[in-house]
Here is the input.
Amino acid sequence: MPQHLTLLLDCPLVIAAIFTLGIGGTFQYGFCISVVTSPSAYIKELLNQTCLERYEVRLTPWHISLIWSFIVSLFCVGGLLGTLLAPPIFSKYGRRTCLLLNNLLAIMGAVLMLCSRAAVSFEMIMVARFLYGINSGVSLSTQSVYLVECAPKMLRGMVGVTIATFVAAGKFTGQLLGISELLGTEEQWHFLLAFNALPALFQLLTLPFLPESPKFLLLERGDQQACQKAVTRLWGKKDHSRELEDMLEEKTALQNVTSRSVMELLQDGSIRWQLITIVVTFSSLQLCGNNAVYFYSYEVFAAAGIQQQQLAYAALGTGLCEMMASLACFVIIENAGKKFLLSRGCLAMAAALALLTITLHLQQHICWMSYCSMVLIFTFIALFSIGPGGTTAPLPSVIFTQEYKSSAYLVACTINWTGMFTVGMVFPILVENLGSLCFILFLLMCLFCGLFVLFNVPELNNKTPLEIAAGFRRLKNKSLDVPKTQQTKF
Here is the structure.
């Protein structure tokens, strides 16, 4: 058995934290992304029914599409608000308290979803989607920080991947429960949209049994005794002196330093390359074309001969592929390294998009080309999950010291939600005007991100934020060094 898996099995409370935080956290984020596709026709019918009964007005298809787009986009608006709210809360009151309070929002949203059909009110769905968005925004920030801080240094890459694994599991569950044999029916769609209450209740009941983050206890509250107790509970009764020394070293370096604001983060030149890394990687997370490939999957599956009523089942394969690839990333990340998976993953995605553009263009002329497109779709999704999907989420917690961690997550998650909103609004226009050529834009983003990480980011595995900062400085100084033999003489 690999060394890292053995070490993880020796920390059963870390495994419990992975499932508790994941099921009540990014699982819900992934679920909310995919779940609205199946009941969309029933929700649109509810829109029309509400306006007929309340205002005696029948909506035109254009009005229905406009309101529907607003309902979907409210999730992103709520997510951005949750991102802004999370850092000051989890920095002041703790990661665990922040997540416990956050579950109440998901439960409130689920109650509104459950009652919306009987009340004939699409406004309740709007409010619920907004609350789900806030819940997901808080979860994305807080879960990443809490989970990485609860893991030993050698396991941080591995447990960080589980953030994306539960996103993929949430997407797949939303697709699965949305089929007509389960909850994707006219009578039961409101139960489907209220499903978020179950993972929220699960986390609400199990999270109190986990300790607070050791780093938070030491660096934010200055309670060394509580920190050691939390470390022992999480990592077992072994010698963890080296880990504690690293935390004490960071505490000494940050003595009398409080959490920095976003403005201070933007103005601090000593961490400029860390900030640029976050901007590039989180921008590529939404602009790499993953959502575009999901969009085209129905079209490609239909071209390959799959019947219209079977497309939802074929699409389940894309969600399952992403989840299985994320599990593979969980196993290999500690040996392969975050930098390797992120840079090579983006470059391989660029190559897959180039081939997919060609096969989509040719499948109208060559009958078997649609099967090549299917293979490339699954390949691209797997590469995304192993590469940027599995490695990007925990980056702010990995490369920034405690003083900048909250602000870094604020910047990262703001970019993530803004990118998701932009893709949702702009992508249909790109498809209408560019067709399959829209993938070229995503190809260029993947290529840029891959090359940037390859040449400008040091290795991150088994490194403290201070060691990573030194690595960034070495790369920066090396790039500025000019051999004397190359200097121009006047």
In short: The longest helix spans residues 402-434.
